[in-house]
Amino acid sequence: MMMSLGSDLLSARASVIWIAALCAVLVFHCSHLIHMRGERCWHHSAHIVMLIGMLYMYAAVAFGFDWLPAQVWMILYAATSAAIIGWMLLQYIERRAFGPLWILALVQQGAMIYMWMPMTVWVPRVSYALAVYFGLETMAWLTRAFKPWPGSAIIGASGPVVIPLAHRSAFGNICMTIMAASMGYMFAGMQLMMMSVPQHPKPMLTQQQQPAPSQSGSRPGHSEPGVPVQAQAPKVAGNEPARPAPDTLPSSAAERYTIASGDTLRRIAARHYGNPRLRRSIMQANPGLDPRRLHIGQVISLPLALSP
Q1: pLDDT tens figures, 140-170
Q2: pLDDT digits over 55-66, tens only?
Q3: Do 75 and 101 belong together in one domain?
Q4: Which of 118, 59, 109 is nearest to 81 (CA)?
């Protein structure tokens, strides 16, 4: 049930809607980046870096993009986070002011690092906590709760000043709302998808372990979509003793899988390996496979020894 809910949240249609919304936000921040200077310029730059990562993430869900490994994105957001921390420390040492929006930007960059970590190390409590946090941030921007607070002190300042948390335009607040909502939505969808899937690849069945053919009268050579082909093969009669499955499998070991309605490589990877990002391993095991043109009844190979 949770797997289905996560897949529904991250369906191709929903992802395309988020892509369109995030593209509009990206245009907004780029226009401000051109016309602004100083601290505001750098602040919009941090948001642009985050937006590019979110657009790529949703595009990977909708279109199967797999151009850059997750490690590249993690390094990128670790670098931006380090730059923000270094700048804030320098401002504090020199007793110069910086606004709390930089703290929000740092949280966003840190969340992006977590988002691109291998999903096998995700902690559900952390994922849902981030989803809740960005949900609250979404409501705060939507209701304009982030507004100027007269008489408050900016961190590092020597006296009371005004904290300009809210954007002057309503469209600016809407853009910040979309950014926060897209992150909370992604964390919730990915974690729900992970909650009910196995954490290790399914073992290949030996002939003796294969289930007997169902009573529904399945035909020889007929494969049922959505079920590994090995699991559908009829039991072979014979008097040979059962041989134990090997402890390790060669890197070329794989089971065949028949594409069913609604299947994508991301969903297949989540269902079989517990990590939708392992679609790369499926593509490597199927040279020439176009992830955007899967059709019902198509048979692909699912590797059992995954590349790191």
Answers
A1: 888 875 554 443 444 554 443 434 445 567 7
A2: 999 988 777 677
A3: yes
A4: 109
Which residue do the tokens 């961190």 mark?
155
Enclosing domain of residue 308:
199-209+250-308
The predicted pLDDT at position 233 comes to 47
The verdict on residue 260 lying in a domain is yes
The total of structural domains in the chain comes to 2
> Rounded to an integer, what distance in angstroms lies between the CA atom of residue 49 and that of residue 186?
17
- Per the domain annotation, does 231 fall within a domain? no
Residue 217 lies in a domain: no
155/278 same-domain check: no
Closest Cα partner for 277 from 69, 108, 128?
69
pTM exceeding the 0.90 threshold for the entire prediction: no
Contact of 155 with 97, CB cutoff 8 Å: yes
Helix axes 124-142, 170-195, angle to 10 degrees: 160
Does 204 lie in the same domain as 91?
A: no
**Is 238 contained in some domain?**
no
CA 141 from centre of chain: 23
Same domain, 183 and 203: no
Across-strand partners of 152?
A: 161
For residues 62 and 224, the model is more confident at 62
